Amino acid sequence: MRQHRDARDIARPLINLLVIARQVRGISGAIFARALGITQPMLCDWETHKHTPQLAALAKWGAELDYDLAFVPRAQADTAAAALAECLLQIEAHDTDYPARYNLVIEAMHLARQAGLDAGFGIDPSADPEMDGFRVVAYIELPHGAQVSWHMPEHGTAWDGHSTDQKYERCRAYARAVTR
Fold first, then answer.
1. For the domain that residue 55 is a member of, what is the CATH number?
2. Is 167 part of any domain?
3. By residue range, what is the domain housing residue 140?
4. Are 82 and 146 within one domain?
5. Is 158 a member of any domain?
6. What pLDDT score was predicted for residue 38?
7. DSSP per residue over the chain, as a string?
8. What is the pLDDT of residues 38-75, one digit of tens each?
9. pTM above 0.85?
């Protein structure tokens, strides 16, 4: 738990700087939230330290205010960016080979985060009824506001009610079973 507190402690002065920079420029919270692609309540939560944004979101926030915030070692980001570029081309090449495409999308999301880009999952509530089972959408925010996304299969089994402790006991049991 201490590690999370440290991340928040590190982010707090940076967030304070970005809040002041936004205010000095006279940019309203609503307009700025739209520029970041987030909701105004989310921006408010970040600015009041109720929630801490991910590093990629902080970098995007800084970039919107003309600050260059480097959180990822340049060599790692460059390597990941090159691997992401190749992976994105492979996704296109396997666009209708769905099992391969799904695995490549997961890999691309991992590479995007390593490159300092924002990536995550969302739910498409307006998905065509024919897309039943594919409401999950994987998103990657490429530089300069270029978003890419793919519908992904939903997990077919409902949550079984396990607790966090049970989850990690199951993980440990699995690890023991396969490493014997």
1. 1.10.260
2. no
3. 75-152
4. yes
5. no
6. 84
7. -HHHHHHHHHHHHHHHHHHHHHHHTT--HHHHHHHHTS-HHHHHHHHTTSS---HHHHHHHHHHTT-----S-HHHHHHHHHHHHHHHHHHHHTTT-HHHHHHHHHHHHHHHHHTT-EEEEEE-TT--GGGTT--EEEEEEEGGGEEEEEEEPPPSS------HHHHHHHHHHHHHHHT-
8. 888 888 888 888 887 776 677 777 777 777 665 555 66
9. no
